[in-house]
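Our preliminary data section would be incomplete without showing what the modeling component actually yields. Below, a chain of 224 amino acids is followed by its predicted structure, encoded as C-alpha coordinates that our downstream tools consume directly.
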Amino acid sequence: MATILIIEDDYSTAEEIIFELRQAGHEVAHFATGQPALAVIRDQPPDVIVVDRRLPDMEGLEIIESLRSDGIRVPALVLSAMSALDERVRGLRAGGDDYLSKPFALVELVARIEALLRRPINTEKTHLTAGPIDIDRLAGTATRSGRPLHLARRELDLLEYLIQRESQIVTRSMLLQDVWGYSFEPSSNVVDVHIGRLRRKIDAENEIPLIHSVRGQGYRFLTG
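Predicted structure:
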Protein backbone atom coordinates (compact mmCIF):
# COMPACT_ATOMS: atom_id res chain seq x y z
CA MET A 1 0.00 0.00 0.00
CA ALA A 2 1.30 3.43 -0.97
CA THR A 3 0.45 6.87 0.35
CA ILE A 4 -0.86 9.23 -2.33
CA LEU A 5 -1.45 12.93 -1.70
CA ILE A 6 -3.97 14.66 -3.97
CA ILE A 7 -4.02 18.44 -4.42
CA GLU A 8 -7.23 19.22 -6.29
CA ASP A 9 -9.75 21.99 -5.63
CA ASP A 10 -12.59 20.36 -7.59
CA TYR A 11 -14.16 18.18 -4.91
CA SER A 12 -16.09 16.03 -7.38
CA THR A 13 -12.90 15.15 -9.26
CA ALA A 14 -11.02 14.62 -6.01
CA GLU A 15 -13.67 12.25 -4.66
CA GLU A 16 -13.54 10.13 -7.82
CA ILE A 17 -9.75 9.90 -7.67
CA ILE A 18 -9.76 9.08 -3.96
CA PHE A 19 -12.34 6.33 -4.45
CA GLU A 20 -10.37 4.67 -7.28
CA LEU A 21 -7.07 4.83 -5.41
CA ARG A 22 -8.57 3.40 -2.24
CA GLN A 23 -10.18 0.65 -4.29
CA ALA A 24 -6.68 -0.12 -5.57
CA GLY A 25 -5.49 -0.45 -1.98
CA HIS A 26 -3.73 2.87 -1.51
CA GLU A 27 -3.92 5.34 1.36
CA VAL A 28 -5.01 8.79 0.17
CA ALA A 29 -4.83 12.30 1.62
CA HIS A 30 -6.53 15.28 -0.03
CA PHE A 31 -5.97 19.04 0.00
CA ALA A 32 -7.91 21.64 -1.96
CA THR A 33 -5.18 24.30 -1.73
CA GLY A 34 -1.43 24.32 -2.17
CA GLN A 35 0.09 25.89 0.93
CA PRO A 36 -1.26 23.38 3.50
CA ALA A 37 -0.28 20.53 1.20
CA LEU A 38 3.27 21.88 0.88
CA ALA A 39 3.65 21.97 4.66
CA VAL A 40 2.53 18.34 4.98
CA ILE A 41 4.73 17.13 2.13
CA ARG A 42 7.80 18.85 3.58
CA ASP A 43 7.11 17.31 6.99
CA GLN A 44 6.35 13.80 5.77
CA PRO A 45 6.63 13.20 2.01
CA PRO A 46 4.09 10.74 0.58
CA ASP A 47 4.97 8.15 -2.05
CA VAL A 48 3.39 10.15 -4.90
CA ILE A 49 1.64 13.50 -5.23
CA VAL A 50 -1.05 14.35 -7.78
CA VAL A 51 -1.22 18.10 -8.40
CA ASP A 52 -3.85 20.13 -10.21
CA ARG A 53 -2.44 23.28 -11.80
CA ARG A 54 -5.24 25.77 -11.19
CA LEU A 55 -5.51 25.95 -7.42
CA PRO A 56 -7.17 28.78 -5.47
CA ASP A 57 -3.98 29.94 -3.76
CA MET A 58 -1.21 29.12 -6.22
CA GLU A 59 -0.24 27.53 -9.53
CA GLY A 60 0.24 23.80 -9.02
CA LEU A 61 3.62 23.86 -10.75
CA GLU A 62 4.88 26.22 -8.04
CA ILE A 63 4.35 23.41 -5.54
CA ILE A 64 6.55 21.06 -7.53
CA GLU A 65 9.21 23.70 -8.14
CA SER A 66 9.29 24.54 -4.44
CA LEU A 67 9.69 20.88 -3.48
CA ARG A 68 12.46 20.33 -6.01
CA SER A 69 14.33 23.40 -4.80
CA ASP A 70 14.16 21.95 -1.29
CA GLY A 71 15.59 18.66 -2.53
CA ILE A 72 12.31 16.78 -2.03
CA ARG A 73 12.08 14.31 -4.88
CA VAL A 74 8.65 12.78 -4.31
CA PRO A 75 7.21 11.70 -7.70
CA ALA A 76 4.67 14.22 -8.99
CA LEU A 77 1.90 13.73 -11.52
CA VAL A 78 0.40 16.94 -12.90
CA LEU A 79 -3.32 17.15 -13.71
CA SER A 80 -4.59 19.97 -15.87
CA ALA A 81 -7.17 21.03 -18.42
CA MET A 82 -4.28 22.91 -20.07
CA SER A 83 -3.45 20.19 -22.56
CA ALA A 84 -1.49 22.09 -25.22
CA LEU A 85 1.97 20.72 -25.96
CA ASP A 86 3.78 23.76 -24.57
CA GLU A 87 1.83 23.47 -21.31
CA ARG A 88 2.69 19.78 -20.96
CA VAL A 89 6.34 20.56 -21.62
CA ARG A 90 6.20 23.36 -19.04
CA GLY A 91 4.81 20.92 -16.47
CA LEU A 92 7.62 18.45 -17.05
CA ARG A 93 10.29 21.13 -17.01
CA ALA A 94 8.95 22.39 -13.69
CA GLY A 95 9.87 19.03 -12.19
CA GLY A 96 6.75 16.98 -12.86
CA ASP A 97 7.35 13.30 -13.53
CA ASP A 98 4.20 12.85 -15.59
CA TYR A 99 1.41 15.01 -17.01
CA LEU A 100 -2.19 13.93 -17.56
CA SER A 101 -4.66 16.19 -19.32
CA LYS A 102 -8.27 16.62 -18.23
CA PRO A 103 -10.65 15.00 -18.90
CA PHE A 104 -8.95 11.69 -18.17
CA ALA A 105 -9.89 8.08 -17.54
CA LEU A 106 -9.54 7.13 -13.89
CA VAL A 107 -8.06 3.75 -14.82
CA GLU A 108 -5.27 5.54 -16.70
CA LEU A 109 -4.61 7.87 -13.78
CA VAL A 110 -4.26 4.93 -11.39
CA ALA A 111 -1.99 3.12 -13.88
CA ARG A 112 0.26 6.17 -14.19
CA ILE A 113 0.47 6.60 -10.42
CA GLU A 114 1.37 2.95 -9.97
CA ALA A 115 4.00 3.31 -12.70
CA LEU A 116 5.57 6.13 -10.67
CA LEU A 117 5.63 3.83 -7.66
CA ARG A 118 7.66 1.17 -9.46
CA ARG A 119 11.24 2.11 -8.67
CA PRO A 120 13.54 -0.91 -8.78
CA ILE A 121 16.63 -0.17 -6.69
CA ASN A 122 19.95 -1.91 -7.11
CA THR A 123 21.29 -2.27 -3.58
CA GLU A 124 24.63 -3.79 -4.59
CA LYS A 125 26.30 -0.40 -5.02
CA THR A 126 25.53 2.84 -3.26
CA HIS A 127 27.51 4.83 -5.84
CA LEU A 128 27.35 4.62 -9.61
CA THR A 129 30.18 6.25 -11.56
CA ALA A 130 30.71 6.76 -15.28
CA GLY A 131 33.38 9.18 -16.47
CA PRO A 132 32.83 12.51 -14.68
CA ILE A 133 29.39 11.52 -13.37
CA ASP A 134 28.91 10.14 -9.86
CA ILE A 135 25.50 9.14 -8.50
CA ASP A 136 24.98 8.65 -4.77
CA ARG A 137 22.00 6.32 -4.66
CA LEU A 138 21.46 6.59 -0.93
CA ALA A 139 21.41 10.39 -0.94
CA GLY A 140 19.61 10.60 -4.28
CA THR A 141 22.16 13.08 -5.63
CA ALA A 142 24.53 13.33 -8.58
CA THR A 143 27.65 15.31 -9.45
CA ARG A 144 29.74 15.97 -12.54
CA SER A 145 33.42 16.43 -11.76
CA GLY A 146 32.35 17.41 -8.26
CA ARG A 147 29.75 19.92 -9.48
CA PRO A 148 26.32 19.21 -7.95
CA LEU A 149 23.62 18.38 -10.47
CA HIS A 150 20.22 19.45 -9.21
CA LEU A 151 18.17 16.66 -10.75
CA ALA A 152 14.51 15.84 -10.30
CA ARG A 153 13.76 12.25 -9.41
CA ARG A 154 12.83 11.23 -12.94
CA GLU A 155 15.98 12.85 -14.30
CA LEU A 156 18.13 10.94 -11.82
CA ASP A 157 16.41 7.66 -12.72
CA LEU A 158 16.93 8.42 -16.40
CA LEU A 159 20.62 9.26 -15.92
CA GLU A 160 21.19 6.08 -13.91
CA TYR A 161 19.48 3.98 -16.58
CA LEU A 162 21.66 5.47 -19.33
CA ILE A 163 24.85 5.04 -17.30
CA GLN A 164 24.06 1.38 -16.62
CA ARG A 165 23.90 0.91 -20.40
CA GLU A 166 26.90 3.06 -21.26
CA SER A 167 27.80 2.99 -24.98
CA GLN A 168 24.61 1.04 -25.79
CA ILE A 169 21.77 2.46 -27.87
CA VAL A 170 18.72 2.97 -25.67
CA THR A 171 15.42 3.36 -27.50
CA ARG A 172 12.50 5.53 -26.43
CA SER A 173 10.41 2.38 -25.99
CA MET A 174 12.99 0.98 -23.56
CA LEU A 175 12.94 4.19 -21.53
CA LEU A 176 9.15 4.36 -21.45
CA GLN A 177 8.91 0.78 -20.26
CA ASP A 178 11.83 0.64 -17.83
CA VAL A 179 11.99 4.19 -16.44
CA TRP A 180 8.36 5.31 -16.73
CA GLY A 181 6.83 1.86 -16.29
CA TYR A 182 4.55 2.27 -19.32
CA SER A 183 3.50 -0.80 -21.27
CA PHE A 184 2.27 1.48 -24.06
CA GLU A 185 3.67 4.50 -25.88
CA PRO A 186 1.83 7.71 -24.93
CA SER A 187 1.10 10.21 -27.67
CA SER A 188 3.60 12.72 -26.33
CA ASN A 189 7.31 13.51 -26.44
CA VAL A 190 7.81 12.94 -22.71
CA VAL A 191 11.12 11.11 -23.24
CA ASP A 192 12.59 13.82 -25.46
CA VAL A 193 11.52 16.53 -23.01
CA HIS A 194 13.23 14.79 -20.09
CA ILE A 195 16.37 14.01 -22.11
CA GLY A 196 16.61 17.67 -23.16
CA ARG A 197 16.21 18.86 -19.59
CA LEU A 198 18.79 16.33 -18.34
CA ARG A 199 21.31 17.41 -20.98
CA ARG A 200 21.01 21.05 -19.96
CA LYS A 201 21.74 20.15 -16.35
CA ILE A 202 24.67 17.76 -16.82
CA ASP A 203 26.45 19.60 -19.65
CA ALA A 204 27.73 22.99 -18.54
CA GLU A 205 29.31 25.40 -21.00
CA ASN A 206 32.47 23.98 -22.62
CA GLU A 207 31.86 20.51 -21.13
CA ILE A 208 31.84 17.48 -23.42
CA PRO A 209 28.26 16.29 -24.07
CA LEU A 210 27.55 12.89 -22.53
CA ILE A 211 24.13 11.99 -23.96
CA HIS A 212 24.12 11.54 -27.73
CA SER A 213 21.14 11.18 -30.05
CA VAL A 214 21.18 8.23 -32.44
CA ARG A 215 19.07 9.21 -35.41
CA GLY A 216 15.93 7.13 -35.76
CA GLN A 217 16.84 4.90 -32.81
CA GLY A 218 17.22 6.68 -29.48
CA TYR A 219 20.10 7.77 -27.26
CA ARG A 220 23.53 6.66 -26.12
CA PHE A 221 25.58 7.67 -23.05
CA LEU A 222 29.27 8.08 -23.90
CA THR A 223 32.11 9.28 -21.68
CA GLY A 224 34.96 9.00 -24.13
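The longest helix spans residues 11-23. Residues 3-117 form a domain with the Rossmann fold fold (CATH 3.40.50.2300). Preliminary results of this kind motivate Aim 1 of the renewal.
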